[in-house]
Write a structure and sequence with these properties.
Elements lengths: L1 E9 L3 H9 L11 E8 L8 E7 L5 E12 L3 E8 L2 E12 L2 E12 L8 H22 L3
Length: 145
Amino acid sequence: MANETFVIESTLSPDAAYERLVDLSRVTEWDHGILECALADGTPGTVGARYELSVTGFDGEPTTAFYELTAVTPDRGFTMVGTNPEFRADDTVTIEAADGGCRVTYDAGLVLTGEAPPLTEAQLDKLFASIVAVPAAGLRRFLNP
């Protein structure tokens, strides 16, 4: 599994940052690799909420993925799992108070699951940092309005 962790210092309070992040329907505002996102099932911000996303695939073409909130701790963070036939993403967002706002730690993991993955594990490990750079940059702007 490829893993990347990044930390964002935000001027938002922990509860304000949490509210902006836990509603995954807003992901298109900060991750330009996500083309569309809509609640597919459940209640936003609660365990079991599922979102249908149109994402840019490894071939550059749109593909569908489903992300589900699997753990939620109000104002402190959440965990989500994203799946489609080609990958599984395991992401954890942790929010803590910091001077002048909050600190958001985003831990992203990705494993390829298809029968004929488009990349080897070594290639994915090497590429993953650049993949994660897109949402990391977007989140810095999104969390510091």
